[in-house]
Amino acid sequence: MEIWHIVGIGLTATALSLLIKHERPDFAFLIALIAGVVIFFIVLDDVLKIIALITELARRAQVNTLFLATILKIVAVAYIADFAAQISRDAGESSIAGKIELGGKIVILLMAVPIIEALIETVLRLIP
Amino acid sequence: MRPEIHTLFVVAAIGIITGMLHSVLRQVGRDDWAHWVTIVGFVIVLYMVAGYLQSLFQHLQRVFHFY
Fold it and tell me: What is the enclosing helix (H) or strand (E) of A10?
């Protein structure tokens, strides 16, 4: 059960961050960053299993592999942009967080262009 | 390079130590040295964090089939 590890690391990082925040806010920011990375590495194996399951389901349903790869990339971009934006917002830089989110949204939209094109082609084929 | 829980304690310890050194050096009257200690501690931890972030990005690219 990894949830105990995750909760323990989260609470420990929160305690350390509170301990240090008055004297050195810059180190509190770095502690939050490391806690995020550590928690991601804990859930990494489970994410691998879930992605294997989704890939197997897509293979059985004969979904185009381009779509699956695009969706996985979009999930990764969304995760990493959200990670950075939350940490920037915690450090008190809401405007930088907003720019990171804007960049993530634009990258996701760019990645979704092939899917949207396929969708439009399908719709146009349905219209006589 | 997988970060573990003890890296959190290492970072917190470096933060506390640089904070103490900062206040001690400022009490003594060496304000410039206090700032240098702060900067060096921050750069050391930033270097560690940069390595961990690099490994995070590499694992993300591997897990989500980015290639």
Answer: helix A3-21
Nearest CA in chain A to B57: A80
User: Domain boundaries in chain B?
Assistant: 3-64
Chain B residues with CB under 8 Å of A12 CB are: 5, 8
Pairwise pLDDT comparison (A1 vs B25), residue with the higher score: B25
In A63-82, the residues whose Cβ lies within 8 Å of chain B are: 69, 72-73, 75-76, 79-80
Task: Quote the pTM value.
Answer: 0.84
Which residues of A are less than 8 Å from B53 in CB distance?
33, 37
- Dihedral angle at the C-alpha atoms of B9, B11, B12, B13, nearest 10 degrees? 80
ipTM: 0.85
